[in-house]
Amino acid sequence: MILNNNYKGNVLVVDDTPDNLRLLSAMLTAQGFEVRKALNGKMGLTACQMVLPDVILLDISMPDMDGYQVCQQLKADDKTSDIPVIFISALDDVLDKVKAFDVGGADYITKPFHGAEVILRIENQINLRLLQLKLQEKNLLLQNALHNLKVSQVQQIQNEKMAALGQLVAGIAHEVNNPISFIYGNLQYASQYIEDLVNIIEAYQQEYPEPTSKLQQLFKDTDLNFVMQDLQNLMDAMYRGSDRIRELVLALQNFSRHDEAEMKLVNIHQGIDSTLMMLQHRLNATQNRPVINVVKEYGNLPLVTCYPRELNQVFMHILNNAIDSLEQSKVESQRSKVNNSQLLTMDYKLLTKPQIRIRTELLDSDTVRIAITDNGIGIKESWQSRLFDPFFTTKTVGKGSGLGLSISYHIVVQKHQGQITFSSSSGQGAEFVITIPIK
Known about the structure:
Heat Shock Protein 90; 5-stranded mixed beta sheet; alpha/beta; 5-stranded parallel beta sheet
């Protein structure tokens, strides 16, 4: 709203006396105000809903609904609560004035009034309202700037952490990869050599069925038959162990993707699998809960152009939160057992069979959808509106920084031009859905 010589503002006059309405209307119109009139409180409220006035002149003594009641209804409605109300009344008692300010009035004029006084008080309220609007606008700009600064700082800090972690992980993977490749490559030859030696011993036993007493004692002391039978089991175990280490090294390299800061074509499933490999220790059974079952329902996805390291970071945050939710479900179930030994607050299957379900699909020719669902404790409704806010966390002090989902939102929405949404209800688990364009 901009005041000028031709238009000074929109004034609504509410008074049950027609002569007062005509007088005020003529006086204000002559001064450049746009004036609307209402003969009672209900008409005044209706007029406010149709077009918001800049200020309201409100008589106190009216039938059916007095000025106090009208003002209370105006202040109770978010749409009209900020409109300044100037009471005009023949009542000059202090208590009447106090009540007028108590119900939300901005000013009070006693009849009979002077035209110049009325105009000045109206202009003061309009100017004050303009200043308040400008202040609110500046506050909003400052809040947005502060929010953007926080998000930028969080992202910068996290990027530095992930870069340092990527260097560390890539270095460890490189150093481990060389010796494990040597071990894995030589296990085949070691297995062949052992097999040759066993064949020689068996041939010797056939050719010389009656060994000397010294050899008989040596065979007895070393339990030769058991050693020959168990050697192959040992070699198989070493094969499995070294193969597992090679998988971990590959997962570390795939997760960190230290040398892949730019966008490139990647296999989304490979990123999810490498993240699950990194979290395997958290999925295993503990003293407090059974193993977390991961169900993969992978669709037929093409290669996706993305920032692979950062997208893996999103998977890590969401899967970590899902595991935390399943851990908390077990804690809640233990509490419910203490409080009521016969009635549990959680579903029995949820407590005994923790599960994370990962589904991927191609929505159309250019969009990929990844849904990660858990049957954990769920997200309280009061938390849901703030879930992606920086530094907001539902975890206890020291358990979470409140940055994971905020950073995930930034990575998916701003860096990949995608969407990240969730659905949940307390005690019923949660589902996070990521959709990103293929290119």
